[in-house]
Structure prediction request, 437 residues.
Amino acid sequence: MSDPTPTNPGITDAERDELRRHGILLTGLEELYNWGRSHSVWPLNFGLACCAIEMIAASMAKFDIARFGSEVFRPSPRQADLLIVSGTVTKKMAPQVVRLWNQMPEPKYCIAMGACAISGGPFKQGYNVLKGIDRFIPVDIYIPGCPPRPEALLHGLVQLQEKIRNQAIAGPDAPRHLQAEGNCDCPIPECGAHDIEPAQNDALWPKPPELVRPTKT
Amino acid sequence: METLTQLRDRIAALFPAANVVLVTNPSPSAQHALRLDATHARAIATFLRDDPALQLDQCTNVTGIDWPEKEVVDVARTTVADPAGGAPRVVEEKTRRIEPGRLEVVYHLYSIALGHGPVVLRLVTGNRTDAVTLPSLTPVWRSAEFQEREVYDLFGIVFEGHPDLRRILMWDGFKDHPMRRDYREPDDYEWEPTPHGDVLAKAKLHYPAPAPTPAAPSAP
Prediction:
């Protein structure tokens, strides 16, 4: 199968690096755009529990998240690109977290930091803790740990930058904000009489698989 | 500080109508308690705070206990002499009774001024459903305010005279009391690779129904 329009009509990466060494910078719009985006990810100034302490440590001089262009913790969701869910999300807090996510403009990303934000962590079997924020909002990066060290958060941020750099700016693989019908307003759950309602966003969080061991009853 | 027995006797002399019971704690901690009746609880609490020999001016801890209804077997042993002149027999007589369910609040009191404590107070409700009102001791010890709210939130004990009795951990529209023994949390099941214990019991509710056993072929 020969494609009439070759995907790489120009030069190879090795040739481009060779040119770069000689002071000639070749780039494309997509690369430039994503390079700019990936190095100015502004997180929301928002902490929930002990993971927030590690997030604060990551922003201070010793770990210095500013090295990656993310030192501008915005106090308003309207100016933030990144929601770091740093800590336990109680069911009482979950509607507010989803509301903050909805208030952030696209393009926006979400990092679930720590065991609690991923799955409920040590409080998973409790009555008042959400079993993972990915039941309600789309999560890009999961950082395990209890809490993760600041290095782990920085690694997660670097992974997110890698993800941003590899996003296409057109076509079906384009991020949500470049899709015509891209919409990521998540329905805000309500605190009901016994649980939050609904208990999950069905569009994001598929039903758990049925157990495959029918013989074990 | 005087012993708890002496304290109980002094309270009984001062409040003749009050029913003060010394509840012993058989565990190694041996933190015996005074069980007060609801009517006189606040007057006795004020006395404990203001008495110059006690000066229990700090309430460090308020918590709740849920006692569901349970069946208790009392064993009464009687020695019966053998009419034939042998060794006497021990006859066990078992009686079953239903211990009614109730809720309990526990207060731990210390004295900063005199450096003694703790004195443990207990208050018991009538039952677990409708007679769950107890007097609030927040007017006596301000530090009990948030903890009484927590007991109200998690156990459902209503404190009469509390200045601001609202839920403190769960949201206002929540109807249950999660620390009660009969509380069942919502079934937000999630697949787990190796469930065990309570998680396995919950997971079993989501196991597919067993296939119906094929009927035995009838004889031709």
